[in-house]
Amino acid sequence: MIMDKAWEKVQQKTFTKWVNSHLRKRGKDAIIEDIQTDFNDGLKLIQFLEVISTKNDWSKRYDKKPRMKIQKIQNVDMCMKFLKSEGVKLVAIQAENIIDGDLTLILGMIWTIIQQYQIADISEEELTAKEALLLWCQKKTKGYEGVDPPASKTFTPTGPTAWRCVR
Fold first, then answer.
1. Above 90 in pLDDT, residue 154?
2. Residue 167, Cβ neighbours under 10 Å: how many?
3. Is 19 helix (H, G, I), strand (E, B) or coil?
4. Mean pLDDT value across residues 33-56
5. Which of 4, 88, 93, 150 has the fewest CB atoms nearer than 10 Å to its CB?
6. 103-117 vs 43-53: helix axis angle to the nearest 10?
7. Positive/negative CA dihedral, 133, 37, 39, 71
8. Would you give the end-to-end CA distance of the chain in angstroms?
9. What residues form DSSP beta bridges with 13?
10. Residue 156 — φ and ψ, nearest 5°?
């Protein structure tokens, strides 16, 4: 269990940096500090989804200063509906989970967004996106002590939101 929490913190830090790499396009005010809480009113999540999807026609009407929980739910729910319309399959997560700061589900949502908007675009040597990602991992880790990328055959879940290479 301690390893799961440590891995969750690594994912939290990594996913926060990835989200910020996209939010920087909106300026310094768009940057998030804590992925667990900074999406809870929907405002930064809306900005992030506009940037990552390059679409903003879906987000014209939202509460720009949400104070009550219902306003936050409406903002985040609009994001969830947008993701669904984009074909992003979110499992077991609702707007309330994001508002309440359920880190495991938030990380799962970000991983699913990464798969939809980043990994799906990878194409290398006529491979599927996941195969291309595995190939990329193998190339990047070649020569590291204790890492045997050529023997890694697939990705497998090690927790609710974690993935690792296995032999």
1. no
2. 9
3. helix
4. 96
5. 150
6. 20
7. positive
8. 23
9. none
10. -140, 145
